[in-house]
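ENCODED BACKBONE
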Amino acid sequence: MNILSFFSKAGVPATGLSPTARVLEIPSGVVAVNDQPMTEIANGFYVYDFVGYDYTKDYAILCDGGATLTGSERYVVAGNESYCVPLIRAEINEIIRTDPSVELASIPNDTAPLADQLQFVFQYFRNKKTVTNVLETMYKEDETTPLGSATLSDDGTTFTKNETV
């Protein structure tokens, strides 16, 4: 199994490092790989070939970029699939259930981050809207500040609501 890590320094891919990989078996904590050197690929990416990988075991992986990196840029933490999936699910659940949402300042476009698009759906169904025969206006939480609007039309056969902008 290849262990792949990316290191950066001040936000720029870090090259010329001498990173190491440490692998612990979970839950025993037995060291399967003890600070073995990783090989530089390019553009801040490094790899270690974990030849002793056993797919029936769970592992925690720590890659150390070395003393020339500081803070959160120095270490990369990972795990094999069976170990990581529950951790990733737990992290996603924590974010979804505890991170506060932020009211939109404007209507997100179709390339906006998913969080903004979900916030739009929430605000659309929750917040005040006014509708005339030609315009639907969506309001912010204060119920007086327009967030966006959509033009409406009805030719007697087909009702059309255009994109909210």
Remarks:
- The mean pLDDT is 89.
- Residues 114-161 form one domain.
